[in-house]
Amino acid sequence: MAIFVYSQYGGIVQEFIEGPCDVILNTDNLPVLSEVIGLAYDGGSPFQAAVYFINLARIIQVKFGVPFFDVYDSHCASSPVSIAVRGTIGFCISDYREFIKLHRLNSFTLEDFQRQIRDVVVRYVKDTIIKTAATNNIPVIQMEAKITEINDILEQKISTRLQEDFGVTVSKVDIGAIEVIK
User: Fold this and answer.
1) Cβ pair 141, 83 in contact under 8 A
2) DSSP class of residue 169?
3) What number of CA atoms fall less than 13 Å from residue 14's CA on the CB side?
4) How far apart (Å, rounded) are the C-alpha atoms in residues 145 and 126?
5) What is the pTM of this model?
6) CA 55/CA 175 separation, integer angstroms
7) Given this model, what pLDDT does residue 47 score?
8) Residues 6+ apart with CB under 8 A from 48
9) What is the tens place of the pLDDT at every residue in 14-34?
């Protein structure tokens, strides 16, 4: 998906080209016209646009890792146990207009987007692990035995948040490992 953002009649206009598509955008085929119009704009062109490309692939996978954090075991509440979690999150942009509306694209960078998603995932992973240990009275050392249940809870929480706040649809969350420092 290519999005062209440009000013027209005092407002911002967006045009969309969905691929696959073979289009060449070129002003060289109108050199005389662009030179004449350019005179009125100090040699520049009034026809400038920002172009953004959005990957509409079915699944975009991003690995995540939550560094060691402390979880209190209900069987030994006086000393915390350190846990780290690794996994993969799969998502796609199903409604590109909503995605654009949420991100405005004027100062969008992939690094910021990945950092924001990573922060959400880390927060929800920690919260889910801590609550699962406390509510189910599971010894922390046996957390990996509940990996499927934790994964399902995590996927539901993350799916809702990423859809509402980031405009992406989560297709899967896979926790690959829950590491416990024994």
Assistant:
1) no
2) E
3) 13
4) 17
5) 0.69
6) 24
7) 59
8) 6
9) 777 777 777 665 555 444 444
